[in-house]
Amino acid sequence: MKADVIKLDAKKAGDIDLPDEIFGLEPRADILHRVVRWQRARAQAGTHSAKTRTEVSYSTKKIYRQKGTGGARHGSRKAPIFRHGGGYKVPTPRSHAHDLTKKFRKLGLKHALSSKAATGNLIILDSIDMKDAKTGALAKAVKNLGWKRVLIIDGAEVNQNFARAAANIQGLDILPTMGANVYDILKRDTLVITKAGIEALEARLK
Predict the structure, then answer these.
(1) Most CB contacts within 10 A, which of 103, 132, 167, 196?
(2) For residue range 141-193, what is the model confidence (pLDDT) as tens digits?
(3) What is the rounded distance in angstroms from the CA atom of residue 200 to the CA atom of residue 26?
């Protein structure tokens, strides 16, 4: 499939052939959902914790005599039924991550890229190279292009001047090709990929 290439000043810079096996798929919500769940599960801290009866601080002395009270028999104030007692089956620190094959993760990225192309929210940029890190100039260019919540994917490395200039612009995020992922792509309204990024994505997803 063909796509127009533009510059930061919104002028046309030719066109490019996008591979159909990456940008021309019919997006499937079930594949995207599985990959996003895998990403968010890996990102979950899993630091939730509560104390069991072996961890709460109480005297180990038997709280009252075994017989003759007319009540239930107890030997410890740490039992879960007492106030400030230890919990039963409490949450413990653990990893929430689960496995997902590399093949499926690649497929999910292809479907995310295809979904942006299908909805017309994919823009191909000639280059993001900047001589000087001028935030004002970049902010003006972004405003003229109508970008609000946008993710820019560059090649193997992001131009440092562009990264510095974009650091204080709200709604503008930049990733190198290896950082491209389904969650970040779907989270933004517009996806912008440089020509270097297209080449690197082709090499990564072939």
Answers:
(1) 196
(2) 999 998 999 999 998 889 899 999 999 899 999 999 999 999 999 999 999 99
(3) 22
What's the pTM value of the predicted model, to 2 decimals? 0.82
pLDDT tens across 120-142, in order? 999 999 988 888 888 999 999 99
Tell me the Ramachandran region of residue 160: left when phi exceeds 0, alpha when psi lies from -120 to 50, beta otherwise. Answer: alpha
Answer yes or no: are the C-beta atoms of 151 and 176 closer than 8 Å: no
Domains of the chain, with CATH numbers? 2-45+96-205 (3.40.1370.10), 50-90 (no CATH)
Nearest of 180, 199, 194 to residue 6 by alpha carbon = 194
**Spatial distance between the Cα atoms of 205 and 23, rounded to a whole number of angstroms:** 11
Beta strands 122-125 and 2-6, pairing class: parallel
Q: With contact defined as beta carbons under 8 Å apart, do 78 and 56 qualify? A: yes
Number of C-beta neighbours around residue 114 at 10 A? 23
